[in-house]
């Protein structure tokens, strides 16, 4: 018989390959021909030995074999096929009809039994059925294998997940949790099973976590996601942040959808979720947020955060009719330390200063680093100015002790300006600006103190900016002028020295005096350049007079604190003298007591170097500062200048001149020269002569005058001889 189309296997789409085995060649050929005509791929094996050899070399979908064969019979072939080709099905085609033979063949794995002689149609139908059964068995085995692999893969994925995977029952108890909980939090999964999930939550997040699983709006399509802190086992590690996603589940579909091979857990589970460790992200966010609102060096709030808190404090004070205070703090002499010891030491100093300042604060106060060596302090609730005074004094006292920076011991002070709400301003910008203005008034008066803002300190910002611009232009356009005031021998009336004093020939405002622009020059740091210009002009002009025959003429020059505190002060001064070929012995520099006492050790060293070079040292405004005999012994001082406020007290009697008497006596005892400033009357001059004052300076002889007028006066033997 023939077939119109070949029977194909459903898995592969190819004809089935069948091994036909018999020891009778005639029967073997007949059966093979029948199967070939039916469309199968046939291989013939004559006898059991040949069958085993073919099975060893090739695979078959089906084997049809006789039981009675010499040597190796059908049962032996079945056993061999089971060992080397277990997927090959077997149909027995045999003349043996005994029940024991049939039973034995089926027990050995035969799928069917056909008795010889066979009916061709029945045989072909049996073959088709067995091959179909084989296909179903293979499909089922393949599905089972893939299902096992899928479940193994899911189990691997769940246990190897970077997240904690968990299941909860209706009451929130843990039914399942993967191994990741041990790596992240230190818990063994077995010890958590049956425990309420809150056992792992930080106490502050328990309520939020409990509410989340009770929310009826949560579903598989709308899961609940929240961030919570989870406790690590033990106290050595800090709690960690997790992003938890959870939703209710259908227990009937749980096992099939997740691959978690825990039937008991899946039957009880009502919630499924994952917990992702986001600690590093939260720490990064916190650091970025900290950077945005804090100074990284001192860890203090920065300008932005200070302004936010000040705005909030103003709103609160306005609502409750309260006062608040804003302090603007500026370190004195920080720049000197920074320039001398380097920025690394400067940073250490700022950190040390911060610690001391923080120790003076009340709870609720806000200290911020405003920039550089400037700080601001908010006192959000004060009853009166006395509260702010007490805090300001504590801050000043806290910085009095020296700071130890490695092998160096340094001193810094602090100048504080205070503005009180609402008297000194009712807005954030006003309070900060007015505190800043008050602080600069402290700087102008000698530093190391505090002052409250008052209306008479108010500065027109537009005029201030305009004046600063004009001062910068004045340096470029050479608008500064040097005037000189003679220093006269009290006995002979002869000019023995001149003090150089700066004036500004403003193109619109005319001649400006030092008090009108020097404070601004100090504030804007233009004082260094300005002072160098004045010294250069004075050295050039007076140097010409000295070389012209006035060889003993002394040039006295006032130096600003910023100049003296500069780490290269000595080097720069000597370089300037050499540049103009000015004799060092004809120069006398004047500094105040306050400059010396700000850093006695550093200033002493600088003054000794200058004195060794031949430069004279004078103490200006003596008696208005520290007036410490100790530093007079330690320093190479040549001259004391008596302040004009003491000279002004001299009248026709000795009663108002006791301070002058003491200063002159002290100078004589220390073998120092004396210059009395502000001499305006004959009576003052007569009194000073009697005391033995060496030199005088003041309007009695001459006000400060341009160089041309002084040069003419030098041509005379004396300016004016007063009656003895």
UniProtKB/TrEMBL annotation:
Its cofactor is Mg(2+). The modification 4-aspartylphosphate is found at residue 66. GO terms for biological process: cellular response to nitric oxide; phosphorelay signal transduction system; regulation of DNA-templated transcription. Gene3D superfamilies: 3.30.70.270, 3.40.50.2300, EAL domain, PAS domain. Residues 150-195 form the PAS domain. Residues 464-718 form the EAL domain. It comes from the Bacteria. Residues 17-131 form the Response regulatory domain. CDD domains: EAL, GGDEF, PAS. It catalyses: 3',3'-c-di-GMP + H2O = 5'-phosphoguanylyl(3'->5')guanosine + H(+). Its EC number is 3.1.4.52. It holds the Pfam family Response_reg. Residues 322-455 form the GGDEF domain. One of its GO terms (molecular function) is cyclic-guanylate-specific phosphodiesterase activity. This is cyclic-guanylate-specific phosphodiesterase.
